[in-house]
Amino acid sequence: MKNLILALLIGLCLPSIAFAKYCKDFKTHAEAQAYFNAKKPGYKRLDRDGDGSACDCLPGGTGKKCPKNKK
Questions:
Q1: Mean per-residue pLDDT, 11-23
Q2: DSSP string, 11-49
Q3: For residue 26, how many other CB atoms are within 10 A of its CB?
Q4: Cα separation, 67 vs 52, whole angstroms
Q5: Considering only 13-17, 42-46, 64-68, which range has the smallest mean pLDDT?
Q6: With contact defined as beta carbons under 8 Å apart, do 64 and 47 qualify?
Q7: Whole-structure pTM over 0.70, yes or no?
Q8: Mean pLDDT across the stretch 11-39?
């Protein structure tokens, strides 16, 4: 019984992990913004500052509040 419950919990969590999107998955801001606007799975992760603009630091974005490059 414990194994069945564990299997169900893992099965419910996997789709959210599989659909997670990150800015590094896109080449341009426009591409990320189109995905964000379509509200596809994992889209909320693309707008970390909550301004409605996805992946601002990608080419074509505003470039505001970008993480500093590690040296």
A1: 65
A2: HHHHHHHHT---GGG-SSHHHHHHHHHTT-TTGGGG-TT
A3: 20
A4: 18
A5: 13-17
A6: no
A7: no
A8: 81
* φ, ψ for residue 15, nearest 5 deg: -60, -40
CA 49/CA 65 separation, integer angstroms: 8
Tokens of residue 10, six digits? 């893992």
Measured between alpha carbons, how far is 63 from 66 in angstroms, rounded to an integer? 6
Report yes or no: 24 and 31 within 8 Å, Cβ to Cβ.
no
- Tell me how crowded residue 39 is: count the other CB atoms within 10 A of its CB: 9
Provide the token pair at 5. 């419950």
Q: Which phi and psi angles does 64 have, rounded to 5°?
A: -85, 145
CB 5 within 8 A of CB 31: no
Residue 40 contacts residue 51 (beta carbons within 8 Å)? no
Rounded-to-integer distance, Cα 47 and Cα 21, Å:
11
